[in-house]
Design a protein that fits this description.
- By secondary structure, the chain is of the alpha+beta class.
- Helix content is 63%, strand content 16%.
- The strands form 2 sheets. A 5-stranded mixed β-sheet has the order 2-4-5-7-6. The protein has a 3-stranded antiparallel β-sheet with strand order 1-3-8.
């Protein structure tokens, strides 16, 4: 039943795209048709007769056309159906009250139907957005599981890595939830992902940069990027327990690009890896999904990661 209703609503959208003069013309015809049906069913409650016609107009056309149709149907009803029942020369307060109630009821019907239409439209939008987000999230989860399985042979290690990456994914989603999935502060995103792996993050990770927020479509990928960098730092770099290293994260705008630097220092000596692990592969994959690029410099003093992507993935860039 819901599928049929959705199909009907999709078909009715065609009328909303018409020029206004066509919408007003069709609405007028529908109101006149309702008046004809009303004249043939005079013994039936007029609200029951008119309601389907008004609801059709409200769901099919723009709000201004619905208001026009309500006024027109009220005028038609008063003139053709109420006027013959009274003597205009001796019109009483009761008849005036009937007219007021009649017209008011028409507008209440319009308001209720319009509210139903808006509620349905919002529900469709929310359903579509939720479906899109779930698909994206499942695609990320599937990628994490598949690629981790290719790189890890030990079951316990596989469980640990997947759990950590799903935890990072959850952390980004939690941040988005607090802002109704609009945008997330870049500073908060870095802090959340780093603190997830290193309890001492506030003391050893320095964050510098103006107030910039990342749009929801890029938050999950960027959050995973910071998670992978932090994971590498905890295992092999400046955030390794007891090494006394530090990490500096900063960002700036260069033309139309947002440039993010992740600089490690004071940790164990860094050696250039002989092969690309899943962490590096995932980093490159995530950066490409943002339409950006990344350079990794395995300097002896510490890893330096330079990430760039277009500023159209950011909002509210203040304090530049």
């Amino acid at each position: 039943m819901s599928g049929i209703w959705r199909k009907v609503m999709q078909d009715l959208k065609v009328f909303r795209r018409m020029p206004y003069w066509q919408q007003f013309g069709i609405a007028t015809v529908v109101v006149i048709l309702g008046a004809v049906v009303r004249s043939l069913t005079f013994d039936i409650n007029p609200l029951i007769v008119y309601l389907p016609f008004l609801v059709l107009i409200i769901f099919a056309f723009q709000p201004i056309v619905a208001v026009y149709s309500t006024l027109l149907s009220a005028a038609v009803g008063v003139h053709y159906f109420l006027t013959p029942l009274w003597n205009l020369e001796n019109m009483s307060a009761e008849w005036i009250a009937i007219i007021v109630i009649y017209v008011t009821t028409k507008f209440l019907m319009t308001a209720m139907a319009h509210a139903m239409h808006r509620a349905y439209t919002d529900l469709v939008l929310i359903s579509g957005e939720l479906n899109h987000r779930v698909k994206n999230t499942m695609a990320v989860v599937q990628s994490i599981v598949n690629h981790t399985a290719k790189q890890v042979t030990d079951v316990e290690q596989f469980k640990e890595i997947v759990a950590q990456r799903l935890g990072a994914l959850t952390k980004s989603h939690m941040l988005l939830t607090t802002t109704d999935w609009k945008s997330v502060s870049l500073r908060q995103l870095v802090e959340a992902q780093v603190s997830l792996l290193s309890p001492e993050a506030e003391e050893v990770v320095a964050i510098e940069g103006y107030n910039v927020k990342i749009v929801s479509s890029a938050t999950v990928s960027l959050g995973m990027i910071f998670h992978e960098l932090a994971t590498n730092a905890v295992k092999h770099g400046a955030l390794k327990s007891g090494c006394g290293g530090t990490v500096q994260v900063s960002w700036s705008v260069m033309g139309e690009m947002l440039s993010i630097r992740w600089v490690e220092s004071g940790g164990p000596p860094v050696e250039t890896p002989t092969r690309r692990g899943f962490g590096s592969s995932l980093l490159q994959r995530l950066v490409r999904s943002l339409g950006g690029d990344m350079a990794l410099d395995f300097a002896p003093t510490g890893l330096v990661a330079q990430i760039q992507f277009k500023t159209d993935l950011t909002v509210e860039a203040e304090g530049q």
